[in-house]
Write a structure and sequence with these properties.
By secondary structure, the protein is α/β, with parallel strands linked by helices. The protein has ten helices and eight strands. Strands 1-2-4-3-5-6-7-8 form an eight-stranded mixed sheet, sandwiched between helices.
């Protein structure tokens, strides 16, 4: 058991090192409180930042930053992504979904309190899809061209939205909607995929499941996405790096194999260098891996040839 002193040290270190959103980095045009008027646990924390392009091409993307399901990298995997997409005519919505919290990394307080855990995250993702679909005309977008892009744990979240698109998690919050909860396409970047050894990212698994459910084999199996690719899975653009020091590169290989076995249209790019956490940064990663943004736009243009 970790001592209180040691736990406090790690909590302070996390607070000092985890990226936070800096408004000067980019400017979203709208800020939406997704659960306003609806009572859900910790719902006030869930926010959608909209980036409107000057000339929208009708495509939109819900962006889910990573952070081990404990926090969010709101800069390189959030606001910079929204800015880059909008610069290319794509309406972007950066989702700050419920996550376990930084303190919970060091202190297993969710053994006593429920905290934030599955299915909170996927419910927030579906709420974002609902909002974008229901406000499509307002943003000048096509409700049938709403995709999702996620990084690390956020990559697991967007693939979860694809894998479980026929499960209506919004009903848990008392929400009835006719909105399409199936993303038109998904873009997992260096994603967490499996909840099982030997390739599981343990911190993400703990953040997603909660301290009292990490040993639940049925729960782990149900959220190991390589085992749950549906027949109606949307097209996938998948990227990772072999030298990733955080999420083992085999996570993406498992997903690629599962998509191939199911015959799901997808493109998988595995870079040798780049590591983890580069997002839309022009400085992080490597020159090789930073090419993923151009490759994605080319792939999207092939998916919607009359749009881009």
């Amino acid at each position: 058991m970790m001592s209180v002193k040691k736990a406090c040290f790690w909590c302070v270190l996390l607070l000092l090192t985890v990226p936070v959103y800096c408004p000067a980095a980019s400017q979203p045009t709208d800020t939406v409180a997704l659960w306003e008027g609806v009572k859900v646990p910790h719902g006030k924390e869930v926010t959608l930042y909209a980036f409107r392009p000057e000339n929208p091409n009708g495509i939109s993307v819900v962006v889910c930053p990573g952070g081990s399901y404990h926090w969010h990298d709101q800069v390189d995997e959030g606001m910079k992504v929204g800015e880059w997409l909008s610069d290319n005519g794509i309406t972007a919505f950066v989702l700050i979904y419920r996550a376990a919290g930084k303190v919970e990394v060091a202190m297993p307080i969710r053994l006593v309190f429920r905290g934030k855990r599955h299915p909170d995250m996927i419910t927030d993702a579906q709420r974002a899809l609902q909002y974008v679909g229901e406000h499509a005309s307002e943003y000048g977008i096509d409700p049938d061209k709403v995709g999702m892009m996620g990084f690390s744990a956020g990559g697991h979240l967007v693939m979860s939205a694809a894998c479980f698109n026929e499960s209506d998690f919004l009903q848990l919050a008392g929400i009835e909607t006719d909105a399409n909860l199936r993303p038109a396409f998904v873009v997992p970047v260096y994603p967490v995929v499996t909840m099982d050894p030997p390739y599981v990212h343990r911190r993400s698994r703990r953040g997603l499941l909660g301290d009292n459910r990490v040993a639940d084999r049925a729960m782990r199996d149900s959220l190991s996405l390589e085992k749950h690719i549906p027949d109606n899975c949307p097209p996938v653009f998948l990227v990772n790096c072999v030298d990733d020091p955080i999420v083992q590169y085999q996570n993406s290989e498992l997903l690629d194999s599962a998509l191939t076995q199911k015959g799901i249209p997808h493109r998988y790019i595995q870079y040798e260098t780049g590591g983890h956490g580069f997002g839309a940064s022009e400085e992080k990663g490597s020159p090789e891996c930073r090419e993923w943004k151009k490759e994605f736009l080319d792939w999207l243009g092939a998916l919607y040839p009359s749009t881009l």
